[in-house]
Amino acid sequence: MATAEPSDEEIVARLRSAGPPEVAALRAALNEVRRAAASGPLATWPEPRGDGSQENPLHMPYPEYHPSVLTLTSALVAVNACPVFDWRNWPGVPRLSTPEAVAAASLADAARLVTAILRAERFTDGVIAQTLESGVLLAVADRILAGLGGP
């Protein structure tokens, strides 16, 4: 039996159940990502290893994220900004593909976008890197913070 999708109100209530320490940790993580971005890349792609032979198979690289990015994604999860829903069939990703669109999004859709980004990274390496480069990941963290009552 399929479970019902959470309503906007349920998603927002769950977000707002996050405590002050979790919200403060999200704010600090976002600030740290911004500081780290000013001093270098937030994601790097190592060179592929191996020559493709049976003895030395080719190993394709995956992005290595700056520790602050991992702290930010963990902080988003800690404030309940990762609702369980059918993210693969959600039409919001194309609609929320710019920082400006994310800033104008509902709080529930911002949380849904976090889920879509984090889950997509598990299937396609570099989704988080793309959202960092476009500014969408930082915009969604800003939107979540604004919805939780702080800049």
Describe the structure.
The protein has 151 residues and is mostly helical. The chain has one domain (8-39, 62-147). Helices cover 58% and strands 3% of the residues. It has helices at residues 8-16, 20-39, 67-78, 92-95, 99-103, 107-123, 127-134, 136-147; strands spanning 43-44, 64-65.
> What Rg, in angstroms, do the CA atoms define?
17 Å
Q: What kind of sheet is the major sheet?
A: 2 strands, antiparallel
Order of helices and strands: HHEEHHHHHH
In DSSP terms (H or I, runs of 4 or more residues), the helix count works out at 8
Spell out the key features of this protein:
8 helices; single chain; two-stranded antiparallel sheet; 151 residues; 3% strand; mainly alpha; 2 strands
Write the SSE topology.
Layout: H1 8-16, H2 20-39, E1 43-44, E2 64-65, H3 67-78, H4 92-95, H5 99-103, H6 107-123, H7 127-134, H8 136-147
Antiparallel strand pairs: 1-2
Helix pairs in contact: 1-6, 2-3, 2-8, 6-8
In short:
The protein has 151 residues and is mainly alpha-helical. The chain has helices spanning 8-16, 20-39, 67-78, 92-95, 99-103, 107-123, 127-134, 136-147; strands spanning 43-44, 64-65. The mean pLDDT is 94.
